[in-house]
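Give me the fold.
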Amino acid sequence: MSTVLEYVDPLEGFRGWLVYDGGSCRIAAGGCRVQQGLTRDTLVSLASRMTLKERLLGINVDGAKCGIDYDPRSPGKAAAVRRFLAFLREELVHRFSMGSDMGTRWDELERLAAAEGIPSIKYAVRRAQEFTDDEFFARLRTLQAPVGALTLAQRRAGHALAEAAVGAARAAGLGPRATCALQGFGNLGRAAACTLAEVGMTVVAVSDEFGCVADHHGLDIPGMLAAPFGTPVQASVRRGEQLPSTALFKIPADISILAATENAISLPQVGELPTPVVVVGANCGLTPDVEAALDRAGVLVIPDFVGGIGGSASVEALFGPEHRPTEVHVLGGVTQIMRQLVDHLISEARRRGTSARSVALHLAQTTIPVPDRRPYGRSRFLA
């Protein structure tokens, strides 16, 4: 059952919403989206997906989602988001643990919250987890620590998506240097590419809203990550074939990774897709009929509420342990969660003769939270 708080901006008149999916746990978690044309119904659907993620991990957190119907490229974006955060002040202090989503970034949201006197967009975790202020903020600062080319905050969600791809590749019998075609090079896609390069996978194509770049020998991912955030992928490489965005799903690769838009693959494209594995990180990255068609075609699909579970998994790895973890331990915890989760889903799916989605849904739907316990520290996939 959803609870919706609606916001109408007093200066520009745009609308925003915070949606809680359920109310049994001490806190609810979800991202903040800035998207032109965003609707209440979209956020209701996304909040329910967040609940699936939390239940799948086995932690005591409800799902939530918030956002504003606003152009993220508008010069007034920062001021608009700040006013929305001010509206959410009491929720952020007591119940809502916010993260970034489409059109927002972690450091941006933290900066704007601080300008409104809100200690952190995750401050609700402090009370729910029964931390002192010193302990909470010490753990929170871990997110700013660099891990490779990006900070932990920047890497955590995409790292999980990449690890889901690693697990799917292993289950599909692909080699350790499997090739990947990556849709999206924003928050999620950049971080996924960073981990894929580190583990030795070859990213042969990347697309964004402006175009696609491809090289069957492998793209220069460190060079692409060195370009400023938001640089079109075609402008971030020195070599590679320049193609339209729509060409991504025609490029031969072992794995397609969806880290950008909703409904990324159409039904007509299913029969032409050259990859045997699809890993979805973007919310609603595939429609149900497309996912079912891929399954019938023998394509291994890791659904969005598994591939996109990294935000929740990383918060479990950060706030769940009894002793304060380092940034390396947090990222390692995410790796452990994803490897155990993906291996379990695929092996169970094969044993039952069904899809990874079906196994994941059953596991999530049969998990009952314990409302009077702390949110973090009990994931079934993090010993």
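The mean pLDDT is 96.
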